[in-house]
C-alpha cells in the first residue's frame, strides 16, 4: 500500500473513532441535560405555587378557593410563543395538591381528586421533609409518554400541611431535544467532513513533498560512463520543504554531491587511463628503439614519433582540463551582450595559421546576433569546431562559417561521418578516422562544444552534407 493511502486510512480510522465517541457522548447527554434543566425550573414553580396554595389549604377551601380559580384560568389560556424557532401553543403543567395524609384535594385536570397518593414517591418523600420527585410513563413500553413530577411542601404555621406537585410531560420538550440532536449530528458530520478534508489536504501535502524528494533523488544520479557531455546538466535545486523533510532534502543533496563527485572522478580516471595507453605505449616503444644504434633516418623518425605522441598527450590533457572545468560549472556567466560575429572572428584568427599549413581556406559569411552569452566559451566552442573541420578537410578546400542570427554553422568539405557514428558525436574520447586513416584526435573537441551549448541552454546538431559535415550551433 502506498504511503498516501496508509496515511489517509490511518487518519480516517482515528478521526472516525474520535468522531463516533464524541458524537455519541453529545447525543447521549442532550436528553438528560434538557430534563435536568426542566426539573430545575419545575422545582422553582412548585415552591412558588405551594406558597400560593397554603392559605386555601389551611382554610379548607382548596377545591373552590382563589388558588383553584387561578390555576383553572391558567389552563384555559391560549398561547403562541415562538421559542428559538419552535412554536409553543399549549400550557402543559398539571398541578395537584394533597393533604397531610396524601389524599388528593385538588387536581387541575380533575383526574385524581380523593385518591390516595401517599405512596407515590413525590408525595411520600415530601411529607417526610425530603425532596420529592418522580418520572412515570403513562405507557410503560413508550419512553415518550413519560411525565416528570416535582413536589414542594405546603406549609401552614411551620408544619407540612400538604404537598403540591407540578407535573409536565416529557414530550413537551422532546421537540427541543430532537432539534438539538439534529444540530449536533449535523455539526458533527460537518466537523467530520472538514476533518476529512484537512486529512486529505495534509496527506496530499505530505505525499507531494515526499514525491518531490523522490524525484529529486532520481534526478541527481550521476551521468553514466560514456554519456555525451552535453547531456550532463547541473543538478536541480534542492526542494524547499519544511521541517524534517527539509533536513532530509539537505542530507540528500550532500550525499548527491559526494556520490556524484566520486562517480565523476572514477569515470574520468577510467577514460583517461584508456586514452593514455596508446601514446604512452608508442613513446615507450620509440624510446626503447632509440637506445639501439640506428640509422640516422630511423632515429629521426622515432624521435618525431616521440614528439608527436607527446603533443597528443599534451592536447589530450589540455582538452580534458577544459572539459573538466566546464562540467563543474552550473551555467554560463555573461555580464553584457556578446556579438556572435566577434566570437567567430576570434576563433578564425586562432585557427588561421594551422589551416594555412594544411592548405585550407577559412571563410566567414552572414550576420550574427548579440545575446547574453559568455564570449570566451562561445569562442572556445567555435575554435574546437574549426579544429575538427581543418583535420577532416582535404587540402585546397574551404571551411565555411555561416552566421544567421543566434545560429552558426561550420561546414567542411571532408568525407563526413558514417551514419552509425552521428548519434555518438559529442561523447568523451569518441573519434572517427581522419582522411589519412589515423585517429590522432582526443575525442574531446565536440564534447567541449556540447557542454558549452548546455551551459547556455542551446543545442548542437550534426548532419552529413555529402560532401562534408555541417555542425549547427543554436543559441537561445
TrEMBL record:
PANTHER family: HISTIDINE KINASE, SENSOR HISTIDINE KINASE YKOH. PROSITE patterns: HAMP, HIS_KIN. Gene3D superfamilies: 1.10.287.130, 6.10.340.10, Histidine kinase-like ATPase, C-terminal domain (3.30.565.10), PAS domain (3.30.450.20). Its main location: membrane. Residues 204-264 form the HAMP domain. The chain crosses the membrane at residues 6-27, 184-208. Residues 271-476 form the Histidine kinase domain. This is histidine kinase. Its EC number is 2.7.13.3. It is found in: Cell membrane. GO terms for molecular function: kinase activity. The keyword Transmembrane applies. It is a multi-pass membrane protein. InterPro entries: HAMP_dom (IPR003660), HATPase_C_sf (IPR036890), HATPase_dom (IPR003594), His_kinase_dom (IPR005467), HisK_dim/P_dom (IPR003661), HisK_dim/P_sf (IPR036097), Sensor-like_sf (IPR029151), Sig_transdc_His_kin-like_C (IPR004358). The keyword Magnesium does not apply.
Amino acid at each position: 500500500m502506498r504511503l498516501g493511502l496508509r496515511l489517509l486510512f490511518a487518519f480516517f480510522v482515528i478521526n472516525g473513532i474520535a468522531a463516533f465517541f464524541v458524537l455519541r457522548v453529545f447525543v447521549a447527554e442532550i436528553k438528560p441535560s434538557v430534563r435536568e434543566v426542566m426539573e430545575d425550573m419545575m422545582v422553582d414553580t412548585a415552591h412558588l405555587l405551594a406558597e400560593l396554595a397554603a392559605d386555601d389549604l389551611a382554610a379548607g377551601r382548596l377545591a373552590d378557593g382563589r388558588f383553584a380559580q387561578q390555576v383553572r384560568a391558567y389552563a384555559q389560556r391560549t398561547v403562541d410563543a415562538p421559542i428559538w424557532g419552535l412554536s409553543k401553543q399549549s400550557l402543559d403543567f398539571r398541578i395537584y395538591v394533597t393533604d397531610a395524609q396524601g389524599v388528593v384535594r385538588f387536581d387541575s385536570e380533575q383526574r385524581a381528586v380523593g385518591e390516595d397518593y401517599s405512596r407515590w414517591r413525590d408525595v411520600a418523600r415530601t411529607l417526610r421533609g425530603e425532596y420529592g420527585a418522580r418520572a412515570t410513563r403513562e405507557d410503560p413500553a413508550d419512553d415518550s409518554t413519560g411525565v416528570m413530577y416535582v413536589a414542594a411542601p405546603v406549609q401552614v404555621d411551620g408544619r407540612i400541611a400538604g404537598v403540591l406537585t407540578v407535573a409536565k410531560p416529557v414530550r413537551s420538550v422532546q421537540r427541543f431535544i430532537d432539534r438539538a440532536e439534529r444540530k449536533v449530528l449535523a455539526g458533527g458530520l460537518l466537523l467530520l467532513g472538514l476533518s476529512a478534508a484537512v486529512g486529505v489536504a495534509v496527506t496530499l501535502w505530505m505525499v507531494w513533498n515526499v514525491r518531490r524528494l523522490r524525484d529529486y533523488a532520481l534526478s541527481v544520479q550521476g551521468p553514466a560512463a560514456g554519456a555525451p557531455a552535453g547531456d550532463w546538466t547541473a543538478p536541480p535545486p534542492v526542494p524547499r520543504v519544511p521541517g524534517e523533510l527539509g533536513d532530509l532534502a539537505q542530507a540528500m543533496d550532500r550525499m548527491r554531491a559526494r556520490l556524484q563527485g566520486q562517480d565523476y572522478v572514477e569515470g574520468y580516471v577510467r577514460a583517461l587511463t584508456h586514452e593514455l595507453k596508446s601514446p604512452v605505449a608508442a613513446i615507450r616503444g620509440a624510446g626503447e628503439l632509440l637506445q639501439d644504434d640506428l640509422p640516422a633516418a630511423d632515429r629521426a623518425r622515432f624521435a618525431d614519433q616521440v614528439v608527436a605522441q607527446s603533443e597528443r598527450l599534451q592536447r589530450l590533457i589540455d582538452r580534458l582540463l577544459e572539459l573538466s572545468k566546464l562540467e563543474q560549472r552550473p551555467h554560463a556567466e555573461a555580464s553584457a551582450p556578446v556579438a556572435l560575429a566577434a566570437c567567430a572572428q576570434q576563433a578564425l584568427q586562432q585557427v588561421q595559421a594551422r589551416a594555412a599549413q594544411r592548405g585550407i581556406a577559412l571563410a566567414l559569411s552572414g550576420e550574427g546576433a548579440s545575446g547574453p552569452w559568455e564570449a570566451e566559451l562561445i569562442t572556445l566552442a567555435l575554435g574546437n569546431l574549426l579544429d575538427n573541420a581543418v583535420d577532416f578537410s582535404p587540402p585546397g578546400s574551404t571551411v565555411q562559417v555561416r552566421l544567421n542570427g543566434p545560429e552558426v554553422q561550420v561546414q567542411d568539405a571532408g568525407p563526413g561521418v558514417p551514419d552509425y557514428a552521428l548519434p555518438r558525436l559529442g561523447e568523451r574520447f569518441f573519434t572517427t578516422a581522419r582522411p589519412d586513416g589515423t585517429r590522432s584526435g582526443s575525442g574531446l573537441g565536440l564534447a567541449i562544444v556540447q557542454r558549452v551549448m548546455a551551459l547556455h541552454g542551446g543545442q548542437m546538431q550534426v548532419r552529413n552534407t555529402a560532401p562534408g559535415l555541417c555542425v549547427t550551433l543554436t543559441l537561445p
